[in-house]
Write the C-alpha cells for this entry.
Amino acid sequence: MTDPFTVAIVLIAFLAFGGLSMGLAMICGSSVYLMMKGFDPSIASETLLQGLFNSYTLLAIPLFILAADIMNIGSLADRLLRFSQALVGRFKGGLGHVNVVSSLIFSGMSGSAVADAVGMGKIIINMMTKDGKYTPSYAAAITAASATIGPIIPPSIPMVLYALVSDQSVGYLFAAGMAPGLLMGVVLMIMNMVIAHRRGFETDEKIPLRDMPMVTFRAFPALMLPVILLGGIYGGVMTPTEAAAVAAFYALAISVIFYRSVTAGQFYQTLLASARSTATVGILIAGALTFQYVVTRENVPDALAAFLGQYELSKVTFLLAINILFLVLGCILESGAILLIIVPIFIPTAQALGVDLVHFGVICVVNAMLGLVTPPYGLLLFIVSSITKQPIGRVIRDLWPFLLALIVALLIITYVPDFVLWLPRLLGYKG
C-alpha cells in the first residue's frame, strides 16, 4: 500500500514545480494525506484557522509590509539615500558603499529584502549606472547582496516567522540580528572597496561636509523611525506587533504631513499592493501550519533526531550541515517556505545538541536570506535582473565575490554564538 506521507510529499513537489504557490501545494498535499489516513479533511481547515487567528505575533507581518510600501512611494527612500551618500559616498567605490549603507538604514524600517531591492535598490541602481561609472550588472549584484541585510537587522518579517515555529521571543530575535546585520554590511563594503580598486572605479561626487547638517536634518524624521521602533520594543513600551503598527502610522504621517509626498490615490494603491503581499505570505503560512500537523502526526522531527543521533554529530558538524543544506535549499525554495517547513524539523535536534534557539534562529534567517541570492533561482537575482535589463548570468558573475563575503560572515555568525547573543543578553535574555 502506498504510504500517505510519501504521496503528500510527491504531490506537494509536483504542484509546486508545476507553478502552484507553495502554500496552496502544501494545503492540497496535507488534505490528501488526511483523506488517505481516514481522518476528517476538515482537520486541515481547523488547524489552519487556529494557527492564523491564535497568533497575535502574525499581525506584525502585514503592518511591516504596509510600512515598507509607504516608504517606497514617499520621499523617505530618496532622503535616506542622500544621507547615505553624504556619509560614505566620498570613498573609493562610493556609490557601492552608499548602496550597502542605505540598505542598512532602510532595513531598520521595512524588514523585507524584496522591499529594499524594489524600493531603495531601484533608485541606487539608477544612480550607479547613470554616468557609466558602474556596469549595470555590478550595480544589480551589489544591490541584491545588500538587500539580504534587510531581514537580519530589526524589524524582520522572517524573524517573526521563526518566532512562530520556535516559540521564541520576537524581541530577543530582533536584538540578536543587530550585530550579524552590521557584520554583513561591513564585509560587503570591504569587498566593494577591493573590487573598486581592482577595476579602477572612479571616485563619485562628494557632498561637501558643510552640507551634512542640512542633509541630516532633511533625513532626520525618517532616521528616527528605527529609533522609535527599537526603543519602544526594548523599553517595554510596546510589543513587536504594536511597533509594526506604529511603524506603518509613522511612515504615513511623515510622508503626508512632513514631506508632503503621498497623495490619496498613491495611498490607496499602496493599500492594495500591501493586501496582495499579505495574502501571499498568509497563504504560505496557512499551508505551512497545515503541513506541520502532518509532519507532527508522522513524528518526523523525533525520527530525524534519532537518525542523526546514530552518527553522533557534534554541535559544530550539525551547524555546518545545516548551513550547507539551507544554502542548497535556497536554490529551489523561497525563504518563507524554508523557515516554516524545514526549520521546525531541525529544532528538536538543535535543542538536543545544546544549540541556543535564538542563535539558531539567526543562523536560519541568514541562510534563508542568502538563498535569495543563491544561483540559479534566487528571487532577488530575478528582481535586480528585471530592473537593470541584464541577463541573469551576467548578474551572477558579478555577484560571486559578494556571496563569498556573505558566506564568511555566515561562518562567523554560526561559530561565534557570543557575537550574536551579547546584545540579547544585555537586554535580559537568559540563554
